[in-house]
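WARN retry 2 of 3 for item q-0093 after timeout on previous attempt; input resubmitted unchanged.
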Amino acid sequence: MIDPRILREDPDRVRASQERRGASSDVVDRALSADSARRAAIADFEAKRAQQKQMGKKVAQAKGEEKQQLLAEVKELAAAVKEAEVAQGAAEEEWGKALRAIPNLADDAPAGGEDDFVLIETIGKPRDFAAEGFEPRDHVELGKMLGAIDLERGAKVSGSRFYFLTGVGAELEFALINLAMEQAREAGFTQVIAPALVRPEAMAGTGFLDQVDDGVYKIEDDDLYLVGTSEVPMAAYHSDEILDPETLPLRYAAYSSCFRKEAGSAGKDTKGIIRVHQFEKVEMFVYTTLEESYAEHQRLLEWEKSFLDKLELAYQVIDVAAGDLGPSALRKFDCEAWIPTQGKYRELTSASNCTTFQARRLDIRSRTANGTTPVATLNGTLTAITRAIVAVLETHQQPDGSVRVPKALQKWLGREVLEPVQK
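OK item q-0093 returned
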């Protein structure tokens, strides 16, 4: 959640952020109203409690009929105190709900929606297949020729948007994971295998609980959620902890399976493995100070770019518009790789600075000279396997359907070219 002091002291800043996101500022007014009601409820409870204590002293000193009269008043006051305590609890709960309804402050993100991103840079040049004299095949056809992707059996076994990676397809997934983990280790990240099932508290703490109906799978009987990214378990990893400032930044590279309903994507990317219900991913996650988070955000982006450079892809980097941010992110950079058969750039990685938004919800703090303060959290995709496979196959294909293996992946795949198993 946002810092309550900002809401109280500079509500217009919060309203401006909502406007940048294309969202209503009503949440600001509701939160301010809830805060006022909460303060009034606290004052009422404390006043009645003080009165009760004072009355208790009088009873102790009184005698006879006066004491009986005071005891009757004490009983009546005790009921009023209990009522005030319940009212305070309800006001506190309403205040918490109102505050959690406000997304992070998108002060620096471009205003607008999905199409209002700002292009930061373009790296590499898309291949000119026409100049090379052949029409590029899409990853579905290439995957079939290479014996790498089996969509038909994926649909037969699990339904639409599922797949099998077979042969060199499976090898390519392991190679991408190994390359990502190698880079992360060399950059000082601690490698993690993260759980794919989490409790509601983890989902709520990271800001994903509101997306349950549209994007998240829930296992009702066990009150657990399948994660759409290992950002969720990694954000909750240090929940309810006070971190030693000497250990910051804490950097983790977490591997997990990811699950998404893709409920709002009817008719989008129905062919192939760009938009699927299950995929594997290596996610970078960082705990640091608020002051250092902005520089760390740039570092995450550079690590993502370095990985895409190793895959020898053409890509662009964009500053995502406020209306396309998740509720936790203050700002997000996406790297989008050129997909030849689509003739456009598609998202491969994202790097988000969530500042103290998630840490406040999950109660993750660090000791400072002035006591404890919430840490900042950041996340960045190092590789999302299915989309990386799509980009590698389509970008490095050759006229006969074979695919040149980027040099950085060759040691993991043990070959320089992926050869078709069928024409």
